[in-house]
Amino acid sequence: MIDVRYNIAFQLYPYAPVAAQSLPAQRHPVVITGGGPIGMVLALDLGRKGTPVLVLDDHDGVGQGSRAICFAKRTLEIANRLGAGQRMIDKGVVWNVGKVFHGDDRVFQFNLQPEDGHRCPAFINLQQPYFEKFLVDEIRVAQEEGAPIEIRGRNAVTAMEQRGDHVLLDVDTPDGPYQIEAAWLIACDGARSPIRDMMGLSFDGRVFEDNFLIADVKMTADFPTERWFWFEPPFKDAGQSALLHKQPDDIWRIDFQLGWDIDRAKELKEENIRARVDAMLGEGAAYELEWTSIYTFQCRRMQEFRHDRVIFAGDSAHQVSPFGARGANSGVQDADNLAWKLDYVLRGLAPETLLDTYSEERAVAADENILNSTRATDFLTPKSEISKVFRNAVLELARDHAFARPLVNSGRLSVPCVYDGLSLNGPDMLDGPARTRVGAPAVDVQLDDGYLLDRLPGGFTLLCIDAPAPDISEVDGVPVTRLDLMGRDNPVLSERYLGDAKGAVYLIRPDQHVVARWTEASADDVAAAVRIALGKGA
C-alpha cells in the first residue's frame, strides 16, 4: 500500500475510502491523474461545463516550497474564466517591469504591459501552493453548484491497460487496491510521469549541464516589485547569473546559477547557502531561509500528446527550463485547449478526431517554448569563448542602444502560442491587426461594463464590431452566442480589432482563440468556420 510522507502546505483533499473500492471497476468519462495546477485547471473547466471528472492524486494536498511562482497574463485570464483568477491576483505580487544587470551595471529595463485596457497584469508572483489551493477552493464552490467533480487523495495509479473504448486502472490506497475504468485518461502527473513510463513512451530532448540553487527567504526589504536579473553578478560566489523576485508574505525568491560540476550536498548546507545570500543582500541582512533546493533542467517533449484513450498534458507531455516561466503557464494553456474539445467529443458534438488537434496545437506551443528556453539557456551559459564574447558585447551595446536589447535573453517570458496555419483555423478575410489574427488568443479590452474577455461565454462567440451580425444561433447543435460592440465609441477596441477596417466579425472558439474573421459574414460563412473549428471540415 502507498505510504505518503512529505511536508504539506495545504491538506486539501484528505484520504477517505469510497464505495468503489469494494465494487467491480466503475466507468468514468474522464479520469485525471495528478492533482497539480494542470490537473486541477482541467478538472474545474470540465466540471463547470457539466462533464463528470475524477481526479486521482497520490498525495492529499499541496506540498511545501514555492516551486512555480510566475503566473502570466494568459493563465490569469483562464483562471478568471473559471472563477479563481481574482483571488490569485489579490494574493499575488503584481509586476510588469524587469531590470537586467551585467555585473554592477544596469543594462536596461523593460515593461511587459505598458498599455492600459487589460483586466489582468502581465505577471503575478504567487507561490504554487497558493495557486493550487485557490483552484481547489473554486472546485469546492463548483461542486456546491452541482459541477460533477470528484477528487480522491492518496489514490495512486500503479498500472494501466488500454482496452478499446476505455482504460483500466489499478489504484492503490491506504486501504488497499481497487480498479476503475476511464473512457479517457488524462495524464497530468508531471515530468516523471508514471503513466508515460507504464506505456513505455519516449520523452526526447536535451539535458542541460547546469545546476541552479533556489533560496526562498523571508525578509522585510524595500526592493521594488520587479524582476531583477544579473549576468555575472557582482556578489561573491553568486555564480554565472542570479535572479531576485518578490513573492507574497514577505518571501523573496533568489536563484543562483552554480554550474555543472558541484557537490550538491555541500551546496545545500545552510551555512553555504547563507554565505551566498549574505553576499547578495549585504552582511547583517535579517532573513529566514524558508525553502531551498538545487535543480537541473531539461528541454524535451513527447512525440505525440494523444495515445488512443490516453492524453498527456503539462510537464508529462513537455518540459522546459524555468527561464521565462513557460512550464506551468504552458500547461494551463494545455488544459484550456483540451477541456472544450474533450467536452464536445463526450457530448457527441464533435468527432473523436478533434482530440488529435490538441496534440497538433499544443505540440507547436511546446516547440516554441523549448526553442525559447534553449536560446535563453545558451545565452546565460555561453558554450565557447567566442559565444561569451558575443554575449558580453550584446550586453555592452544594450546599455545605450535599443536595437541590441531584443538580443539580450534572460528568459523570454511566457506569452500564449498563436496557432498560425493549423487545421482548426478558418478564413482570415480582414486586413486587421496582427495581434488578433486567426489562431491568436483574443485580446482583452476595457468596455463600459467590464472587460471583453469576461463577456465571452465559454462557447463559440460571434463578435460583431460595427458590422451587421449574421442570423445564426447554432451549428449542428453547437450554440453560437452573438456579442455586438461599437468600435467607434472605443478607440482601444478599434485599435486591437479593427485597425483601418470600418467593421469586423470575429468567430471566437471556447478557449478564446480566434477561428475566423471577416469584414462581413453570412450565416453560411459562420457555419463553415464553426465546422472547421470542430474538426469537421468546411
Shape: globular
Mean of residue pLDDT values: 92
Using the CA coordinates, give the radius of gyration. Answer: 24 Å
Number of helices: 13
In terms of per-residue confidence, which ranges show pLDDT below 50 for 5 or more consecutive residues? 1-6
SSE-based structural type: alpha+beta
CATH class of the largest domain: Alpha Beta
Give the biggest sheet.
8 strands, mixed
Number of strands: 28
Number of domains: 3
| Helix fraction bin | 25-40%
| CATH architecture title of the largest domain | 3-Layer(bba) Sandwich
- CATH homologous superfamily grouping of the largest domain: FAD/NAD(P)-binding domain
CATH topology grouping of the largest domain = FAD/NAD(P)-binding domain
Separation of the first and last Cα atoms? 52 Å
Oligomeric state of shown chains: single chain
Residues in β-strands, percent:
25-35%
